[in-house]
Design brief:
Helices cover 49% and strands 10% of the residues. With 592 residues, the protein is of the alpha/beta class. The relative contact order is 0.09.
């Protein structure tokens, strides 16, 4: 199934260097404390993105990874910045010299003139991967400072710098694994191959392993070819687990033999020795001292707070869920949810504040080093099908979607093009329903160019499921989990508001008269009429995507969760089959 995708953007190198200099200046303007440290981490992430973009540009030009002067200067400076982050963490956020503008300018001298392709580091944005944990793991590893550190681009650029900082090492090499996601390989220049083969010690940093572990496997295989067996390689992954179900046996063997050094978010923050490193200390300035221990509600545990009957629980994909905790204080109960480090997290918090001000989402207390803190509304109940009059529900959902369409324009390149959605729908339909379904999707291909000419990508919600809506005791309907699914670790991203109209039809049953009311309200708020044929096509694409997502989630789920996800697979398969049987495009906006 096609589900996953990278979030990429095109960037001017000079603008990125200027943004980085501004981020460092902002950090320097703050006094000692967590806010200054978080700003410094944000600058590290921005520097890692710039370094990744420059290294990838050189890779594309040469066809292989090497180490030119510009990339070498940037990676050296990145390690220095990582050292400042590590010093800040160790000192309890009181130390850590921050480079000034002149140092930044020297590091960024000679940047390539053309645009860079910068990939969002997913771990920093979604999965609570904290760079400080990698320096902590390196410092405890016993490796010598002379080790050569290899960072796997994208996120391994910054993570490798933190490993180097934790070791006290100056050397960092970044490489780009390429090819099929389950069969990555490296393309290195001869000098770089020789350098890695002759290094006295080698450490490899990345976020994984994921479903296949093939990025780590590509490096281990290359080093083994150069005479360095896996047991002489130190790996710095983000978790202690093994590669997933798609891993090759050779990857499993090498990964199992390598020495692994892991410090997780739990080690770094939840179980930190120093009080100032703990999450409860981060939250207290916003909501007051906690009156009870933090209550983790990640991985679907939030369902027990909304529905005691496990048989009534909605499905969850624990592997994809953000870390989140309930914090009980004298001012009430608050939800602290990880939404991203640095600018990515700050951008999402701005969305959360705007949605609350517009009356669509819970109150926001603030943002603390990756965590959005918002009011937990214990008296609310999840939306249930048939509980709210469909026309009233359509009014509220339409107001919400129309507001998003008017307020949250999307930066170019942050969503799948329509031909990408078509390819996904065609593939997933064939996997689930056979070749005839694939041919039915093909029938829409000729309409895509016309749809694309009229679409306006916005930061769509992308998560309109029943259980993502709360009904307050006074009948007010609020939207939860509304800040980041347009920038998730999948291939959809930002889309036209018609994508969410299609989602509302499938998830909330807003079809027929309710569907027409929904479209009328969206048109009034957004200032343009949704195209019925476009919505009809996106219902097919939406059902195919959700079918793929539920299928993939079920592969990694435990037995109880797998049953819920299989029910979701059946539901989306039925929606997809029904929509593919319709001979003419008729979406919820179409007249009877």
């Amino acid at each position: 199934m096609l589900v996953y995708g990278d979030v990429r953007r095109q960037a001017d190198p000079r603008n990125e260097a200027s943004r980085l200099a501004d981020a460092l200046a902002s950090a320097r303007s703050l006094g000692p404390g967590l806010d200054r440290h978080a700003a410094l981490v944000g600058a590290l992430i921005a520097a890692g993105e710039l370094t990744q973009g420059v290294a990838d540009a050189a890779f594309r030009e040469a066809g292989l990874d090497g180490q030119d002067d510009v990339t070498g200067r940037l990676t050296g400076w990145l390690v220095r910045l990582a050292g400042a982050v590590w010093a800040s963490w160790r000192s309890g956020f009181t130390a850590g010299a921050i480079p000034d503008r002149s140092e930044t300018a020297r590091a960024c001298a000679g940047l390539p003139p053309g645009p860079l392709e910068i990939r969002l580091p997913e771990g920093f944005a979604f999965y609570a991967v904290y760079p400080e944990a990698y320096a902590l793991a390196a410092a405890a590893s016993g490796l010598e400072p002379g080790a050569t550190v290899i960072g796997l681009r994208s996120i391994g650029t910054s993570l490798g710098a933190m490993v180097a900082a934790g070791l006290g090492a100056a050397g960092l090499v970044t490489v780009r694994p390429t090819g099929h996601p389950f069969r990555r390989e490296l393309r290195l220049s001869a000098p770089l191959r020789d350098r890695l083969g002759s290094a006295p010690a080698v450490a490899v940093a990345d976020e994984g392993p994921g479903l296949s572990g093939s990025s780590f496997g590509a490096v281990l295989g290359l080093l083994e070819e150069r005479g360095r067996p896996a047991e002489r390689v130190a790996l710095f992954p983000s978790h202690a687990g093994e590669p997933g179900h798609a891993a090759a046996e050779e990857t499993r063997r090498r990964y199992g033999q390598a020495r692994r050094h892991v410090r997780t978010f739990d080690d770094l923050v939840l179980h930190a020795e120093r009080p100032e490193h703990r999450l409860e200390a981060w939250l207290a300035p916003l909501v007051g001292p906690l009156t009870a221990p933090l209550d983790e509600v990640s991985g679907g545990a939030w369902r027990a707070r909304q529905a005691g009957d496990r048989a009534a629980w909605p499905p969850a994909n624990p592997m994809q869920e953000r870390r989140k905790f309930l914090a009980r204080t004298a001012s009430g109960t608050w939800l602290a949810k990880f939404v991203g480090l640095g600018e990515e997290g700050e951008r999402k918090v701005r969305r959360a504040r705007a949605l609350h001000a517009a009356g669509f989402a819970p109150e926001v207390a603030g943002f603390r080093h990756g965590f959005l803190v918002e009011r937990w509304i214990g008296a609310a109940t999840p939306l249930a099908r048939g509980r709210i009059d469909p026309l009233r529900l359509a009014e509220r959902v339409g107001d919400y979607l129309g507001y998003r369409a008017a307020a949250f324009a999307c930066a170019p390149g942050r969503g799948a093009p329509l031909d990408g959605l078509w390819e996904m729908a065609r593939h997933n339909a064939a996997e689930a329903l056979g070749d005839a379904a694939s041919r039915a999707v093909d029938g829409w291909c000729g309409a895509l160019a016309g749809f694309a000419a009229r679409m306006r990508p916005v930061e769509t919600d992308n998560r309109l499921h029943l259980w993502e809506w709360l009904v307050l005791p006074d009948g007010t309907i609020l939207k939860t989990d509304a800040v980041d699914h347009h920038a998730a670790h999948d291939l959809v991203g930002c889309q036209d508001v018609a994508w969410d109209i299609a989602g509302a039809a499938i998830e909330l049953g807003l079809e027929g008269a309710a569907g027409r009311r929904l479209c009328e309200v969206v048109a009034r708020r957004a200032g343009r009429e949704p195209d019925p044929a476009f919505v009809a096509w996106l219902e097919i694409a939406y059902a195919a995507f959700q079918l793929g997502a539920a299928t993939m989630a079920g592969h990694a789920a435990e037995a109880e969760e797998r049953g819920r996800l299989q029910a979701e697979v059946a539901r989306y398969r039925a929606h997809l089959a029904a929509r593919l049987r319709v001979a003419s495009p008729r979406g919820p906006c179409a007249l009877p």
